[in-house]
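Structure ticket #2291
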Amino acid sequence: MKKCNKCEQIKRFENFSNCKKNSDGKDYYCKQCCSIIWKAYYNENRKKIIDKTRVWEKNNPQEFAIKKQQYCKRYYKKNKDSDTYKKKQCELSKKYYYRNKEKKKEYNKDYKHKNREYFRNAENMRRFCIRYSFLCKQFIKDCLEIYKKCLNGYEVDHIIPLKHKDVCGLHVPWNLQILPIELNSKKRNKFDGTWDNKSWIKDL
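Resolution: structure written out below.
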């Protein structure tokens, strides 16, 4: 326990900040009193403090970026579940979008072009959920898991094609397989009359 020299209340050591100069390793004032003192000092010397921080930012850009990231992470963890924080972020994102509308569109085009395989698979998953909503939930989950396993450079293919002159396959988990994009583009809707449907590869 320790007595605060400002409010003159006896409090636990946890309520005092660390100070190496003192013998007990704690500050003379408690945290509440210190916050009041620093707020009053900031209001009186606001311009002076802002000018100093701006000069320090220009001279130390790397350290400033690291501290900014740490502050943003701490602030996000504290306020990520609050409604006021979510509303504030939505307003800021809208303002940024309207200011940099053309820049944002160019960035989205480049990002979609670089990750076009990912967006193609996501679109296929969306269409599957809409078209085959009449199937049981377990079938839908199994099909979605297959689409999630599909990495860059691969696509989900139907072993028995959906559109063929002799047969019509189904969009079910046991009729799906993962193939490279080049092989899938060559396969198209070829069907050799067997369930494995692999003999057409020899003809390539």
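Closing remark: The first helix runs from residue 31 to 44.
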